[in-house]
Amino acid sequence: DIFESGISEEMYKNNVLIATLTLVALQIGLVDLLLETNLKMDKVVGHSVGEIAAAYSCKSLTLQQAITLAYWRGKCLYDSSSQMMGSMAVVGMSWSEGQNTCKRINEILGEDQIWVACNNSPKSITVSGTSCAVDNFLGHVGTRNSLLVRLHFTCSGKGNTFPANFVEKHF
Questions:
Q1: Which of 4, 27, 121, 128 could lock 53 by a disulfide, CB 3.0 to 4.6 Å apart?
Q2: Distances (CA, A) of 38 to 31, 35, 46
């Protein structure tokens, strides 16, 4: 049991390395399940770590490469020397509403600390930023929003990028 190994449940839930590996493993499992039904995909799309499963689904990455890439992506974020605690939240609002709300929050905070990270659907976005900025954002939208899902994480800043030479070094 992971919780008997000395890792607290809270640390386990907020670990970007574990989250990255879990998301990619689940997405690859879904891809494999769909492929077993002889489904033929015309196009694939992925966002963030979903890009890894998308590349796997069209055979641009093997299973081993996909899991290795997910591991190193998560590890680079986890080990980042410029770590800051951040948050993400899925919110039931349009892209433009989210952009406007982020702009207001950033004006209050005096710098860009929150942004719309993903347009999930016409009525759902994901915002990302510092924990303080996401707290302000969620306080602003409050209970009038029926879709609020929050995730804390350790990040290396906007974009969550890892070194450009990563692929050459590991593949």
A1: 27
A2: 11, 5, 21
pLDDT digits (tens, 9 = 90+) for 1-38: 444 555 566 666 667 788 889 999 999 999 999 999 99
Burial 141-169 (b: 16+ CB within 10 A, else e): beeeeeeeeebbbbbbeeebebeeeeeee
Dump pLDDT digits (tens) for 74-130. 888 777 645 556 788 889 999 999 999 999 999 999 888 999 988 888 999 989 888
pTM of the predicted protein model:
0.60
Close Cβ partners of 63 (under 8 Å, ≥ 6 residues apart): 28, 56
- Count Cα atoms within 13 angstroms, Cβ side, for 112: 9
Q: How far is C-alpha 72 from the chain's CA centre?
A: 15
CA–CA gap between residue 104 and residue 10 (Å, rounded): 31
Strand partners, 129: 87, 114
As a whole number of angstroms, the distance between CA 37 and CA 30 comes to: 11
Backbone φ and ψ of 118, nearest 5°: -155, 140
Contacts of 41 (CB under 8 A, 6+ apart): 34, 57, 58
In the block, which residue shows the tokens 């997910």?
70
